Amino acid sequence: MRGAATLERRFRAAAASQGPEVGAALLSARFGVRLDGGTVPWCWPRLLALWEALATLPASAVERNPALRRIVCVQGVDGAYRGTATRSPLGPGTIELGALRPGTPSRAYPVPIDRFIAMVHHEVGHAVAARLGLYDTLYERVPHSPWLFQGDREAFLRRLFAGEDPRTLQLGRLYLAQPPGRRSLQRALHRLQAQQRRWGQSPAPASLLRLPAVRHLAHNSRHALPCYHRLRPLPDGTLAFYDSGYGRGFVLHAGRLAQTRVSAYQMRSPNEWFAELFALHYAPGLGHGGLLRRLAGPLRHIADWLDAHV
User: 292 exposed, middle or buried (CB, 10 Å; 0-12, 13-18, 19+)?
Assistant: First the structure.
């Protein structure tokens, strides 16, 4: 596109002789996003890296994406996307970038990638998911997505304990009601027994804790921070309840999570699972979708889906 090429030539020339405010105006004109309103002023190294990051993305992800309106530099975060459901003084559709320095390689991925560019791509991935309305429909729409549904502990428990002693369902509810980092089956059993005594029922036996489904619940109900990177591997089809660092729960196919893992942070929630895959798919220097297509089988199908739908 001639206009884009002209703007890029002017941008590169301005980097040698003019202030960053000129570069910010040219970048804003090229990609259709506002750069004003941040608490940290833009500098040329960041503007140059931001141009490189955005230029590797399709227009539907950036300039034709109504869910992306502004990119700013701020203090106190590495990166964040403020969507329509998030209150932000700058309005919805804002990406906030923290103190990351361009040119610093990230070791979070299977290959070294510029950490600043990876962060930009990750947050744009959130904006793309917002435009596509993905986060409530990941399992149905994105191939090999491990996330079944969000925030529904009851559905998970009923599926896990189908055909089991009815008291296991009550035990599971009390277990998952405990804070993620302090869960104890023994404590949940004591609470269940106390309730049953108050209701004039016979207290549940300790043998309940030895049932395979109850042991599965204890072993595979994980919380995201600090141990989201230590999810124990489980065979495909195994269901696990997973508490995110955002105060929400997700039910997942644990085997699929392992098959599509590209970073530890990706394990945190469905949102991060998609954003990390998006970031790798468009990483510069690897060829379009190069890394995902070089990795194990399911990731190649996800790369094809991104090409077709983004």
Answer: buried
